[in-house]
Amino acid sequence: MAVGIFDSGLGGLTVLRAIERRLPDLPLVYYGDNAHAPYGVRDADDIYQLTCKGVARLFDEGCDLVILACNTASAAALRRMQEEWVPADKRVLGVFVPLIEALTERKWGDRSPPREVAVKHVALFATPATVASRAFQRELAFRAIGVDVEAQPCGGVVDAIEMGDMILAEALVRSHVESLLRRMPNPDAAVLGCTHYPIVEDVFRDALGPDVRVFSQPTIVAESLADYLHRHPGLIGTGRERRFLTTGEPRAVSNKATLFMRRPVPFEQA
Question: Both 91 and 223 in a single domain?
């Protein structure tokens, strides 16, 4: 048994790396749907079908728990999957809720009514599909009141990262930050609502300035997973196996992943 990590491409590797550091003995199977990336420009039904297919593959690999390390899939598909599709003996978790709990300083499982929090003005950077879903605002409203969210769809950033064109990625990030700051000049916090964005987190931080607190998902999700597995030890597998599956061309994906992770990452055909 292992924990599955699903992403539309390579961004979920940022989450996998944080989980490895936090839970070094946890067996993991990663699935990247590189053949269909990016998800951020697809419609909700398409995202749902592709996500279900990938998660089913991870179930076949013996993963009883799967993390959707893809904000677009978490926003557009997770709730429908949990209501209509996920078997009773499996668990599929997203990456939005741990992020929002960190932003609102609420502990895992806190079911108290929404309340005022310290953060009042939040800049959300995400893919067009994530922004269109309004999933972040919906989940935030369950936990906090009086928070103004300004969302910026960051078209092109994921594509540039997947292509390895970091010069283009940096230029796009700075353009998107400038666009948001014209509408919200003084955010208290910024949320990087895509697991690709930690790869260019330093660019976001520089463009936003030192007074904006930046929330990035990998470490937050890893801590949340450690807490979840502590409360559900039956979902923890044995051994330290790591497997990497892709719908893309394994050698090409492995080469790109190796650059991101700074170590060999041998992908297999999914």
Answer: yes
Whether residues 115 and 91 fall in one domain = no
Q: How far apart are the first and last CA of the chain?
A: 18
Q: Which residues contact 69 (CB under 8 A, 6 or more apart)?
A: 5, 6, 7, 11, 12, 14, 15, 16, 95, 195, 221
Q: How many Å apart are CA 68 and CA 5, to the nearest integer? A: 6
225 by DSSP, 3-state: which? helix
Domain extent, residue 125, equals 97-216
- 81, 149: one domain: no
User: Does residue 70 have an active-site annotation?
Assistant: yes
- The tens digit of pLDDT for each residue in 79-97 reads 999 999 999 999 999 998 8
Q: State if pTM tops 0.70.
A: yes
Tell which of 176, 197, 216 closes a domain. 216
Final residue before a domain boundary, out of 216, 240, 255: 216
* 206-247 per-position pLDDT tens digit: 999 999 999 999 999 999 999 999 888 877 755 557 899 999
Catalytic residue, from 52, 63, 70, 154: name it.
Answer: 70
Confirm whether 194 is a catalytic residue. Answer: yes
